[in-house]
Amino acid sequence: MKALIVDDERLARNELKRLLENFPKVHIVGEAANADEAIQLIDELKPDLLFLDIQMPGKNGFELLQSLEGDVPEVIFTTAYDEYAIKAFEQNALDYLLKPVELSRLTEAIQRAEEEIHHHELEQQGRTDGTAKVLTENDQIFIKDGEKCWFVRLGKVRLFESMGNYVRLHFDDQKPLVLKSLNALEDRLDSKTYFRANRKHIINLNYIDKIEPWFSGGLLATLRSTAEKPEKIEISRRQAIRFKELLSL
User: Fold this and answer.
1) Residue 66, exposed/middle/buried by CB under 10 A (0-12, 13-18, 19+)?
2) What is the mean pLDDT of the chain?
3) Which end of the chain lies in a sparser environment, N or C, as judged by fewer CB atoms within 10 Å?
4) Which residues are reported to carry the modification 4-aspartylphosphate (predicted)?
C-alpha cells in the first residue's frame, strides 16, 4: 500500500513516519509540505493512500482534494482541529485522526484503508475480466434501500452522488442509497449518456437544462427535476474541457 504524507510541519511528518513503521504493509513513497507539492507527487507516484493535514499555507487539504481528477487516493485526515470532522467525511475520507495521532486510532484507520483498497482491487479485477456489462439508459435496474425497492429504467436517473462508500441515485422524487463506489459505477454506465462532472457526481446529459460559466474555468450545470429547487452541479475545470470536446460540433 503506497502512502503519501502531506503536512506543512516537518515534525508532524516525522512523527507520523515513526508511527507508520509499525505497519510493514504501508510503504511511504513521498511527503509534501503543501498542496501544490502534493498534487504533483500524486500525479507522479499514484499513491493508494493519502495522510492529509487540513490547515496548510496556500490551499488547505479540502481544496487539494477538489483539485484532483480521475482516481483519487483514499484519504485519512490528520489534524489538530476537530471542527472539520463532518466536512472531512463529506469528502469521503476514510478516517479523521486528531494530533497527536494515537497508535490505536492509526491502527483502525490503516485496517479500514486496507479493506477499502482491497475492495477496489477486486472491483478492478472484475472490470478487467470483462464481467461487468455496460448499462445503457434503456436498461432496467433493481434498487433496494432498507425496506424499499424500486425497478426503474436507468435513463430516469438524472444524478449519481457519492456518499462515502455509497452512491445516492436521484430519480423522480426518490433518492435511495446503494452500496457501491462512484468509480465502479462509472465503469458500468454508458459514457454517451452519463458524464463524470467531478469527483462526487455523475450526471445524465439528457437532464441538463442549463450550462453557465463557473469559477476557475469550470461550468455549472442545472438539472431538470421535480424538486422545487433545481439541482446545480459543478463541472470541474478539467472535466469542463472534456465536456466541451464531447458536446461541441
Assistant:
1) middle
2) 87
3) C
4) 53
